[in-house]
Each structure stands twice: as structure tokens, then as C-alpha cells.
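Here is one chain, start to finish.
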Amino acid sequence: MCSVNEFTAPGSSPADPGPWLVETLRDLGQIAAAINRIGPDDRTGMQQVLDRIAQSAARAVPGAWAAIWAYDPHAQAFDLLASSPAYQHLHRMPAEASWLCDLGRRALAARCRILSYDEPGPDAPGGHASSDVDRSLAPCGRQDAPAHAGTAGCFPLLVAEQETGTFCVVLESDRPFGSLELLALETLANQAATAMYQPQRLASVQHNLARKEEELNRLRRAGLLISSRLGLEETLQAILQMALEVTGAHYGIFRLLDKSGQNLITRAIAGESLGRPMVEALPVSTTSIMGWVAQHRQPVCIRDLYAEPWNRIYYPLDAALKMRSELAVPLIGASGRLEGVLNLESPAVGAFGEEDSHLLQSLATQAVIAIQEVRLLDALQEVAQRLLVQPRQEVLGHLVVLACDLLNAAASAIWTLEGDELVLQASSSGYERGERVPLHGSLTGQAVLCNGPVVADDVRTDPRFHRRDLAQAQGWARALVVPVLASSDREGNPVGAFSVYSTGAEPGRFAESEWDEKVLTCLAHYAALAVHNAARQEALRAAQEQRAVAETFAAIGDIAANVLHHLNNKVGTIPVRIQGIQDKSRPALLADGYLATNLSEIERSALEAMEAVRENLSHLRPIHLAPVDVAACVSAAIQDVSLLADVRVEMYDLDGLPAVAAAQRSLTLVFANLLENAIEALKGHGVMTIRGTSQEGWIEIAVSDNGPGIAPELQDRIFEFEPARGAAARPGKLGFGLWWVKTLMARLGGAVAVESDGRHGTTFRLRLPRAKDRP
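Its structure:
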């Protein structure tokens, strides 16, 4: 509060302002330098500066004394901090102190200087008028002023709109302040305000820096927790404990969104004196604060849970504990996916502030990183295990599902490069396997051609997207496509592409997120591994089959040669003996026609059996490869099979195909077997299509029918050796069927594969090496 001192300070304005002005400016400069040296909570340095300001004011205004008060706005009280020497007896005169404090309140309320007279204005009649910036006490100032007071001026000390105190200067004479004196006093008042605010500001900055350093340390610890690869629950528990320590919260909980996106599941909980916390699944749509945060995807800081509207939706985490304030933030990934909600509570009203909210959001970001990394690592570990035991198609099918889950996408697809087209190998939804898009001019093809990621904001209108009809039907909007590389670096040759699509209703932004690009690229590497692993396995299997076939046929050839030798020895005697009987028993044969006829039939059958053995065993001998015309083999096969009236064969692009390295008769048998299978599947009515394409080093022939197709689960078994089943289906045949087709293709150095969705026909794809490309 104001103290009372006796004061005396009569004087007059200087006649020559030159030396006075120089001295005042020197004081101002030295005071400014002293202010810059004030440190945090440096009350001694502040006091020295304020004393010097009061003394400088007395020198700047001759015959005046000055005083500086601190002001407590809550108590509305003043405390004398510094004064010039002439003010040393003021404590004996309470009227002066009271009057100056009242003057200070008026100056603070007006937020500008207050003078105890009407300040002269240049346009005022008689030389006196009220200034635009000053407030006069003429109506009341001189009437309630003490008898010893003369001219007075009071300056509010304001910094950043905060009231710190007042600066008062009093003359015992009635002369007004000169304009230079007022300017000097205004400057000194600003310096006094700065001197009083400086240690507080520096202390606050130092405190904030210390808190930020502590926050950074905690965030660094959270990062170390994530990099240490702890389990997800342990990581979330540690982050939650940090949040409680740094914010002073009493209770906290992590709830993560389940796969359905409908419920928040408790994954970590911490707090003091927990009784029976509510850890059951919390529906997102329920009336609760965490549900509100999840739905609106915005943080919320609630000062008082008992206030409207929060008291109506507050869901207590522990009914036995009375909480009054709450802080909750959503966990949102880089792609905009909601992962869950982090919630803190305190029994104190207004326990959390804006800084707490920012810190909790930072910790939530660390939690999201942990969640994403754990999910990605688990997914990659699962894919790695599948690569070892599952066929390519199942691995690719699992990868497209993972891409949707990890990137919050509506659909995804994996394409492989075949010539100038991309063929769909796996899709989560929308597409059907086997669909093709051109390499050039398509969005997916662009990723392959540029060997880098490609994004699209809306595939429904993007001219590069070839299935805009599908995008419209599925509601797809954004797209991200990355190449499937033949190696792990960007220098590898793409073997396909991996694409993901999100709907316009989803908050996903994976087209803008580096994280999503890296995740999809990582999954694309696994897709490449699956493709290459399947290719290597197929090559190994083909080599093993060719070796097995060669060894088998070599062994069978040896056996066949031995059998043929014995047959020639045994069966070959039949015609000789018949001829002997005919020569020696001619009269009997002439007399008995029945006997002569049967002997002739036995001779003929023996000769035909010998010829049949020689012809069929010729297939077991080594095949001598030569340039063969595919169209000629197909035509010969069509002549060999029995086409029904309602079954027709359509041929495309066969005549211009380069020659293949094969054996004419063996390749004709392959086509004949496939045509017979198709005729049987069509059940007397339908179309068979044979189409040829030329690729680098290979010729591909697709034999298709529009029959009922082959179920996917049976496609791996149709090439197995089951002679009994085939023989029963087609009497008079050996029944080797597709096993024989696969065996012959392996002996020719080619391969055969089947494609069918089990509903819309079947396609057999034959691949044979081009004759000129074979060494």
C-alpha cells in the first residue's frame, strides 16, 4: 500500500533546453542499457533501475519529485517501489499518498497519462484546452488535492496490456509541464514499465523453456520406447504414465478403435486410487466425451465436467472417483485414419490448459507412430511367414487386404506386367482377376513407366483411369499407385504395380502422406517377392518335371525296347507259324472255311498289334525339336477330334505367329487333348477360341471355351495323373488327359496354365519357346 512521506520539489522549467536535453538523453541511454542487464527474477537490478528512473525524472523536470508504484489489480493496491530524494518524508503525509494513488487508478483506468490541469492546446482560446490523449483533473483534481501539492502528472505503466504500476511526477509550483518534459517523462514511464516487466517476462520465458525442455525429454523418451520395439500395450502404458506426470492428471486411459470402426477398446489405463474403472468396449456412437472426440476428430479441454453441455454426456471412467476436468485428444494417423482416443481426468476444476493440450497431442502422435509401426511389423511378419508356405495367389490376396487395413483404403489391387498390358492378379473388391489395362496411357501404367509413385485426387474424373465406371460405382476418389520392382531399389525393373483407392467419404489422405507411400512400397516389395518366388518355384518345378519326365521316359524307353524285343520274339512267331500251318494243312483249310478265316484274322491281329506297339511307343522316345508351325498343328488337331454340330472353333492371330521349337506330332496331340476336354465341357453346344500372341522369346496360345468353368480350388489338381477317371469318362482312351498335356509341354520346353473363375468358361495358356530364340 502507499506509504506516506514528506515531499518538497519546487522548481521551474529550464530556460535553455540544450544542456538539459543532452543530460536527459544520456540518462535515458544509460537506463536502457541497465534494463537490458536485468536477469530473470533480478529484483535487485530492477530496483536499481527504478531508483535511477525516479532520479532522472527529478533532473528532467527541475523542482519536481517522482515516485514509482507497483499495482496489484486483484487487491487494487499500490506499493511504493522507488522515489526521488525529495520524496523521503512522504510517509508523514497520508493525504498526498492517497491522492496520488487515486490519480494512479484514474490513469490506469484511462490507460493514458493524467495531468492535474487542462493541458494547453494550440487551437484552444486563451491557451487552455483538453488534449485528445490526456485526461484533466480540473473538475475534481485540485479540489481534492492536498494543500502542499502543485502540478502533478501520473503515467500508467502498461506492458502487453498488463497493468504493472504507475509513475507519478509532482511540482509544488503551478506551472504546467513543458512539451519536452512530458516527452521525457513518457519515455521514462515506458522504461519503468519495461524494467518491472523484464524480470517477470524473462522468468516466464525461462520457466517455459524449462517446461518445453522437459516436454522434449518426455517425447524423446517416448520415441526411445517406440524404437525399443516393446509390445504395443507396454508402449501405450509408458506414454500414458508420462502424460499423467507432465499434466498432473490423476487418471488416464487409451482406447483404440477396433477393426469394425464402431467401438473403442481399452488398451492401457493408469491413475491413482483406481477402484473399478470402466474398461469395457465403448461404442463410438454412444453419448460420451470420448465418443464425441472420436466422431468429431478434435481435441477437447473441459474446465468443469459439471457445466453444460458436458455434464449431460460425461461418462465416468471410475464411478467411485469424482472428476471435475477432462482433456481428451484423438489419435489420428498420417493418412487421416482414426486410431483411437487418449483421455486424461483430474478432480480439480480447470486442471488442464492449452499447453497441456498441445503436449498431450504430441504424446498422442507418438502413440499413433507406435500403433502404426506395431501394426506394420506384425503385418510384414505374417506376410514373410505366408511367403514360405502359401502359393503366390494367396500371398497376393492377403497383401491387398493388408494394404486396405494399413492405409485405411477402400480397395487395392496388384497388377503384373505382361507385354504392353497390366494384368490384375489380386484385388480386395471391385475388380475381377484377369482384367487388363494398357501400360501406356493408364494411371497404373504410369507408375510402371516412370518407376515411381503416382497419385490421383479423383479417379472418377481422371482421364488416365481406365475404369471410371467402376470408380463411380464403388465411390473411389483418391488413388496411390507404386511400382512393383524386380529388386529393392529404384534401379530395378518394374514387374507390375500396386494400387490403393479411397472413397470420397473417407478422411484418408494417403495420396499426400509419405508414410503411406513407404508402407505401400514396402508391401509392393513383398508382392515382388511373391511373384519372383512363384516364378523361381515354377522354373524349379518345371526343371524338376522335365528331368523327371526325361528320366521316366528314358526308363520307360528302355523297358519299352525290352518289351518290344520280347513282343517281336513272341508275337512275331505267330505269323510265321500261321504261314507254316497254311502251307502244310492247305487241304484242311480249303475244306474248313471257318478255320482258314480265323487263322487269317489271327495273323492280321498279330501284325496290327506289332504296328500299334511300335507307333505308341514312339512317343516314349526322345523328342527331336524342330521349327513347327502352330497354325498347322491346330488345324491337324481339329481334324483329329470329332466336332459336334453346335460346337464351333474360332481362331485368331495364328497364321502370323513365328515358328516354335517343338515336335509336330506331340504338339498336335496337345491341342487335340485340349479340344476334346473343351468339347466335353461344352456338352454339345458352345464356342472354342484359339488365340495366339508373340512375346519376347515366347509364343503364347490361349485355348478358351465358354463353358461352366473350373472351380478355383480344383485348378491345381486337374493336371494330376488319374487314368482311371479319364478312361471312364472317354471309353477307348488311355485317360491320361491333361496330365499328358502337361507332360508333353514339359518335354517340349514349355508350360501350361489354367485360368477360370468357376463360372464363365476356362482358358488354357500354352507357352512355347520361339524356334529362332532357342539355342
